[in-house]
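User:
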Amino acid sequence: MVNHSYVNSPAFLSGTLHLMACFEIPMHLIGAYCIIFKTPRTMRSVKWTMFNLHFWSVFLDLTISLFTTPYVLFPALIGRSLGIFEYVGVPVELQLYLIVTLFPAVGVSITAILENRFYLLFSWESSWKYFRIPFLTFLYLSSFLCFLPSYLSIPEQKQAMEEVLKIIPEIQEYILSDGKMFVLSTDFHEFFWTLVIMIGLVTGTSVTFARILYRNMKERSRLLNMSPQMVQVQKIFFRAICIQTSMPILILILPISYLAISMFSGYFNQAANNLCFIITAFHGLLSTAIMITVHKPYRDFIYIVFFQKIHRLLLHTESKIAYSMSMISRTSSGL
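Assistant: Predicted structure:
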């Protein structure tokens, strides 16, 4: 049986996230190496947009699991940091601001990959080339600045803590005695709807570009404007990009859904809060693993490096079979 009192605790959250970071860091370094050094010439047009997505995903991942390790008492916007930034003196409010801005930044980087494919394949000669940079700049600025009003209106802490405890008294036993719990806001509505709007914006733009890409590739295939081989290559790459970007997003649906339910219903369950952050931190690890898996050059590199003995054994066996077959063929010819 699960020890719910331990799952509720800061020790469980920090221990689990820090353990995950031990696996995440080498995986992310391998992913970055693959993008920078193992991206083939045929994929060079998307190399840096893929690296951009990898960077923001890793940054979000490590910010949660290692740098900030947020212990938050949803539905109250109260929490504290258990990560490295806490021990080097980074203000808690800056840590919180970093976390909430990284979520939409990852979404914008997904949009950037899809927009890049759309531009290179279908609109590099159109007027879109004049609007794409301002468009992406707007999205990134929106992700970095959307929570600025909430940050600038952080309440006086003692009074805010008393007000929140009156509304949600059950969190009292989870308020740590070291005095480092921080109240971001006494009203979650502004924070929540800002998050919803940004998620809607980046999701909408990503889905729009994905649909346009799919429709245009289908149209070109029908009109035979591209060779069948090129169409197939583009379809495979498009499918790989969609898998790479959509699967981690599906992982985030669960914690985001719980966050919405918790805030609007007032339901408090600290074990669920902790598990939500653990699931969210898993997003980056999954994203890197999927990226390596779905793109053949990266998959082949990992196979050769980490399964070299098996690879050599297979090559040796293959050569022996080929030699045996040639000997049989020669013997048959001699007869």
